Amino acid sequence: MRRRSRPPKAVRLAVRAGATAIVGSAIALPLVRKRLKIPGPVTLAVAASGPLAVAVLAPRSRKRDVALFAMQMWAFTVVHEMPYDDPEALRRRLYTHYPIKVDSALGVGRLPGARLQTILAGRRPAAALDRFLTVTHWLWFFEPYAVLFWILVRHPEHCPRAARQMAAVFDAGAFGYWALPTAPPWWSSEQGLTKEPMRRIMVEVGEPLWGRYWGPLYKALGGNPWAAMPSLHFATSLQGAISLAEGSRREGAVGWAYALVLGYGLVYLGEHYVTDLLAGAGLVGAVRVSDPIFAPAVGQVSAVIQRLERLAEG
User: Fold this and answer.
1) CB neighbours (10 Å) of residue 89?
2) In a domain, 41, yes or no
3) Extended beta strands in the chain, E state
């Protein structure tokens, strides 16, 4: 059998240097994009190329997979926040009325979130429920990654598909934030757009709980207040539950329990309309149905990355 010849050292160094430069740019460029007035398409292209460059730099391993997904989520964070770089321009495209109309129809004349808040207002267990659902909401910032890590450790054969579909849900949802910027119920209530007021319970719980740290924490995590449609909180927790269930029925039950409690909480806390949750569930269904269609294309991209990886390794 003919042995594969090693690529020249200059080629290996060039590939590694190029991939390293892309990773560095993907991390640094989004941080300075406003100061340097870098065009949005350039920032998006550089951020999106980061995960591919990580795959080229390191041989396939669990650590590489974790680093690759971390770069993928950094790119998502950039895409999620960029529409709010110009709040006034985004405000002119903001949708506020259609989710109110749809939710009012679903709630038989009242917003389901407002109905829940009215039913529980003043009741003794309400404060404990507020804290419980708020913490459940905050746990979402870790939940999708914890799910994928669990699958990576316990069911590694399912991890590539689970990570691919989770990333697709995140990316497609971020596109929705660009294409259909939609205000959440708490914001519309503050503007007097809803028939009855809705509290933003997360803030009511967070301010006394975190004290002086609440302001910086809220600012860091609330990069785009109009990223509501679809609800990626619900969509990714739902995708995680389905992926867990593919490895274990018991683990899937835990994932489903979290997703359903989170969904209830998102509506009750005033963070999302039921419409947002339904759109998130529809997004998960679309990703899973289309996964076999796009899998060959993903395989072709993977083959190209593997060739570059071999060149980088020599």
Assistant:
1) 10
2) no
3) none
Q: For the chain, what's the residue count?
A: 314
Angstrom distance (rounded) from CA 102 to CA 95: 13
Tokens 């600012």 appear where? Answer: 219
- Rounded Cα–Cα distance for residues 104 and 43 (Å): 39
User: What's residue 230's pLDDT?
Assistant: 95
- What is the span of the domain harbouring residue 104? 86-300
DSSP letter at 85 equals G
pLDDT digit string (tens) for 38-58? 888 888 888 888 888 887 777
Q: Is residue 182 part of a domain?
A: yes
Assigned domain for 66 exists: no
Residues 48/54/56/60 CA torsion (nearest 10 deg): -130
- Give me the number of domains the chain comprises: 1
This prediction has a pTM of: 0.84
Between CA 70 and CA 150, with CA 147 as vertex, the angle to 5 degrees is 95
Q: Residue 28 falls within a domain, yes or no?
A: no
